[in-house]
């Protein structure tokens, strides 16, 4: 018998279809937690506007009869230049949570990034198989953070992604107004620090209060050097927007930088990630790998990011919408749609593969 979730996944023809389907089934406060940004959500909106004003200059009379989306990310093969972004608490939107997402990512041949605030322990996620990266928030207890990095490495994670733009959580007004609180059955399974995020506050967001207690606002370049010395895994810095910071990251032995404004959830008014990529890539000059996060909603968006110098993109909200609407089948369908759109866009732009896409001109 075909379930409602299977029908929802089968009939979706773009990411926006899943956004609408997820909005219809999620509780309003959870929908706001996933979709919302900080402040007036200026940067949240600007991320999409940056893609919409970036136009590609296609090439013609090129053989695209064998058009492929195959890519290499952090030295490993991937079926397309995409990884799942680190997003907290997948069990907020579906009972299987990160396990369903990890299975879908494995089937799609793309890496899955486990959040420090994952609602499933990292060991259970790596047991699914597939390529798994681990996103690290620097905790107030530095020794415990290094233990967490070692735990991820021992579990089989293939890379560490240090988020560097969260000294504390941005003021996300939707969560503040909802006094957002985690339900009892959802917790940060890898770093559980008690019930702060489950206690409904008299004002503000319980999740913001929890992260404020757990995360260190004293993260510096010395911390990056400490982590670099501690791990043999590829090290990625997520949340870089300034060219000067990207250059210093490369000089510090970082393997990749994620150009990201945290999906518009941190500094409201920060530059759109795609605009930052356009400025940063020529300055960095290939000193380390570049990934783009924030606002990706289609295969054409992926092509735009490649043309502006990215090796690949991270996708967060679309994955959560697919998971909320149709579970694992929904996430699989999101990946299928993005792969099909990317292949179509590559061919129409005259590119047989993602390497040729990096030679496309853009008009912005």
From TrEMBL:
Q: Which InterPro entries match?
A: Aldolase_TIM, Alpha-hydoxy_acid_DH_FMN, FMN-dep_DH, FMN_HAD, FMN_hydac_DH_AS
> What cofactor does this protein call for?
FMN
> What keywords does the record list, in alphabetical order?
Flavoprotein, FMN, Oxidoreductase
Cite the FMN hydroxy acid dehydrogenase domain residue spans from the record: 7-364
Task: Look up the domain of life of the source.
Answer: Bacteria
Q: What family does this chain come from, according to its entry?
A: Belongs to the FMN-dependent alpha-hydroxy acid dehydrogenase family.
Name of the protein in question:
Alpha-hydroxy acid oxidase
| Organism of derivation | Streptomyces luomodiensis
